[in-house]
Amino acid sequence: MIRIEHLRFGYRRDVDVLRLDEFALEARDRALVIGPSGCGKTTLLHLVAGLLLPTRGKVIVDGQDLTQLSPRARDRFRGQHVGVVLQQFHLLPTLTALQNLLVAQSIAGLPVDRAAALAMLNALGVDERVEAYPHQLSIGQQQRVAIARALVNRPRLVLADEPTSNLDDEAAAAVADLLLGATESHGASLVIATHDSRLKSRVARQLVLPRIGSGAGIGRGVPA
Amino acid sequence: MNLLQLAWSYLRARPLGTLLNVLLLALGVGTIGFVVIVNEQIGASLNRDARGIDLVVGAKGSPIQLILSGIFHLDAPTGNIPLAAAQALARDPQVRRVIPLSLGDSHRGFRIVGTSPDYVALYGATIGSGRLWKDEMEAVLGSTVAARTGLAIGDRFAGAHGLGEGGGEHGDAAYTVVGVLQPTGTVIDRLVLVDTASVWHVHDTGHAGSGGKGGDDGDRQVTLLLVQYATPLAAASLPRRINAETSLQAASPAHESARLFRMLGVGADVIRAFGGIVLATAALSLFIALYHALNERAYDIAVLRTLGAHPTGIALMLMLEAVLLALAGGVLGLVLAHGLVAVLAWWMAEQESLAISAWAFSGGELWLLVPAFVAAALAALLPSWRAARADISATLARRA
To answer: What's residue A92's pLDDT?
Structure first.
């Protein structure tokens, strides 16, 4: 599902902030990206999402080399094949829960399918409040809607950036359950970037990114 | 749930700001639209009233005053002229037709005009009920006069001395209404028409009238003459000949209306410039709103990008917001413009002034939307460009 080869990324050509020689994730597999803050966890997610381009190397998602796509094709590819869950579960505040899913379908260039969106919300346990605006929803409900939005286009890959930081143990466990359960039942691969050690017991595959500049070399996927 | 609906959702989410921008745009478009429509309507009204009249001949004085009093019935006449001089002019080979007008009296603010049936024909007016006048002291009412005064066929009324209300009445010489004209949209709607001889008759009875003094046939007078040329060549020589060789004054309606219009034009330019400033203010306010929205929505924009939106889509969304505002502001502005014209039309009708129509929409008015769209597009240009170029990864990382 993900194949990374000789990846280098830096904001200046001569200074890498991220080096990753090899990483692969199979379909339906899941992995944590962990490491100290500033090691490039979020950067790696953005590279896999095609929001950033590597200075060198290849990022291949679902058989597609992202570096070979035009910017427009890369945006389209992300919309249709990659679901993204952000730290704040940010929903568009001017749209209802349901509309947040419909806009994801529309922006990805897919037909707007109200029934599918409702079904996805129901699957995530949002039944009645689909016409409510984000500020009218509890935090827990907002999280469910955001995960439903990431899954509504049936992506083969879901990326989550620090989904459990700032959450108490109970809430963090609930979010982890939702993410793992929903991606599992929809057959999607899952990559979670996190520094939250509570998640380590939930996902076996862990990629540790060292902080560059502290002397450590190249990050590698290490099994727990 | 496309970009247009998304843009709309943002406008709806901040109703006060949206309303402010729509109102500012509407005020700008409305002000400019008001000037354009009024110009158009006054021009059309002047043209309707002056149609078929090549020259106005009357006593010496201000040529504009002669036109205003003789054609538009807005000002006092410059004085009277001897009937003999009028008859001499009618015999001139360069003159096809002369229509005499005798002014000076009014009924409840509506001018009583002593004239010939040619005057009715000049405006293509037709009798709505009754008939034209045949004898002295028979009167035909314009449609507005009939409607406002409530006078009907067979009713009798006395003319009052002077052109305004409140003059002394010629109580001993009453007119009888014999006909009412169909509405024409011209000045004739606001006039009471009688035979020239009736005016003489009224003033023969001993009043020291200012319009058409009585007395012997020899010193009969009329106020002014509407002249139609026999040949277009007359325009070159006749006015000059009259002004130079006689005690009369000739004024060309085309020339004097153009002069009048130019004088009004300065006022119109000032109002138009004001409208332009309001529109520029609207653009600035819109710019500030959109620019502010950029910061406020940086994370929303980043989320849209993670959902697969292309930078041009993001730019388009902000552009669409501006365009929606321009559309709402523009349409509201046009309604406002017509509303203002309606107020002016009502006021002018109260003043027995030119007849203008407020609710005549022309396709050309849609051009008034163009400045609104231009203002909106200019305001949205920089914010859209910045939104498209925003570093999504950095925005998302900042929050994380």
So the answer is: 93
**Residue recorded with tokens 């011209």:** B186
Q: Is B126 on the interface with A (CB under 8 A)?
A: no
The model's pTM is 0.76
Mind listing the pLDDT tens digit for each residue in A148-186?
999 999 999 999 998 888 888 988 898 899 899 989 998
Report the relative pairing of strands B248-251 and B55-59 from DSSP bridges.
antiparallel
Q: Which of B86-99 are b and which e, b meaning 16 or more Cβ less than 10 Å from the residue's Cβ?
A: beebeebebbebbb
Check residue B165 and give its pLDDT: 66
Rg (CA), chain A: 17
Q: Which residues pair with A208 in a beta bridge?
A: A34, A220
What does the domain layout of chain B look like in residue ranges? 3-46+267-399, 55-251
Q: What phi and psi values does residue A216 have, to the nearest 5 degrees? A: -65, 150
Q: Please state the domain count of chain A.
A: 1
Identify the three-state secondary structure at position A189: strand
Say whether pLDDT at A214 is over 50: no
Enclosing domain of residue A179: 2-223
Question: Is A90's CB within 8 Å of B309's CB?
Answer: no
Query: Which residues of chain B lie closer than 8 angstroms to A10, CB-CB?
Result: none
Beta strands B127-130 and B55-59: pairing type? unpaired
Flag whether residue A87 sits within 8 Å of chain B, measured between CB atoms.
yes
The answer to whether the Cβ–Cβ distance between B1 and A87 falls below 8 Å is: no
CA distance A74 to A171: 34
Residue B325: count other Cβ atoms within 10 Å of its Cβ: 29
Distance CA B187, CA B70 (A): 11
Q: Which helix (H) or strand (E) holds B343?
A: helix B311-350
User: Any idea what the CATH number is for the domain that residue A22 is in?
Assistant: 3.40.50.300
Asked if B310's CB is within 8 angstroms of A109's CB, the reply is no
Please identify every stretch of chain B with a pLDDT value under 70, giving residue numbers as ranges: 164-168, 170-172, 205-218, 399-400
d(C-alpha B190, C-alpha B184), whole Å: 10
Please tell me whether residue B282 adopts helix, strand or coil conformation: helix
**Per-residue pLDDT for A213 more than 80?**
no
Write the CB contacts of A17 (distance below 8 Å, at least 6 apart in sequence).
A9, A10, A11, A40, A43, A212
Q: Within A37-129, where are the H helices?
A: 41-49, 71-81, 97-107, 114-123
